[in-house]
Amino acid sequence: MDERFNRWLLPPLLALLFLLIVYQYVSPACPGAACPRRPPASAARRGGGPEEREEEEEAATMPRLAAKFPFARGELCRRVRFDMRGRDVIVFLHIQKTGGTTFGRHLVRNIHLEQPCYCRAGQKKCACHRPGGDKDTWLFSRFSTGWSCGLHADWTELTSCVPAAMERRGCAGNRTLR
């Protein structure tokens, strides 16, 4: 009996199980126009078009979020002048799981500058010197200075650590932190 089961019944049962699993993951829960969607009562009374109804439905399902940090428009749209030849320093705040490693690499390797960062093959740190200088740096990041303020230093740690770290490196740096 056991041998007969393995030879004749097991392959069709496994095939059926496979098809059920594939159907579960491949088939849509509600295919295209087959799903009945009732318009909101207000749209049915007004006689609004289907586009208006869809917009209303989307707006009704979107959660209302209160502004947590209400920045003024002028603050968000301000222009900040960065003087690479002067004493300004860009401090890169690395936030985990946000693409910061990729962005940090692009800062030192792919930006077209008057004097690009010098990166040696096989090394993670690059030298990002100011144009005309050979010691002072314009970028404070893990790819230019290393983890000078600790691994994944937050805003508070960076604001207290960067001036001292720049002085240790022999860079004057800008005292105005932005």
Topology of this structure?
Blueprint: H1 2-26, H2 41-46, H3 50-61, H4 73-76, E1 90-91, H5 100-109, E2 118-119, E3 126-127, E4 139-140, H6 155-169
Parallel strand pairs: 1-4
Antiparallel strand pairs: 2-3
Describe the structure.
The chain has 178 residues and is mainly α. The chain has helices spanning 2-26, 41-46, 50-61, 73-76, 100-109, 155-169, and strands spanning 90-91, 118-119, 126-127, 139-140. The longest helix has 25 residues, at 2-26. The protein starts with a helix and ends in a 9-residue tail after the last helix.
Structural class: mainly alpha
Relative helix content: 40-55%
Largest sheet entry? 2 strands, parallel
Computed over alpha carbons, the radius of gyration is: 30 Å
**What's the end-to-end separation, in Å?**
80 Å
Count of extended strands: 4
Mean pLDDT across residues: 79
**Beta-strand fraction estimate:** under 5%
Which descriptor suits the 3D outline?
elongated
- Give start-end ranges of low-pLDDT stretches: 174-178
User: How are strands sequenced across the largest beta sheet?
Assistant: 1-4
Order of helices and strands: HHHHEHEEEH
Report the total helices.
6
Q: Main attributes?
A:
single chain, 178 residues, mainly alpha, two-stranded parallel ribbon
Short description:
This is Heparan-sulfate 6-O-sulfotransferase. 40% of the residues lie in helices and 4% in strands. The protein is mainly alpha-helical.
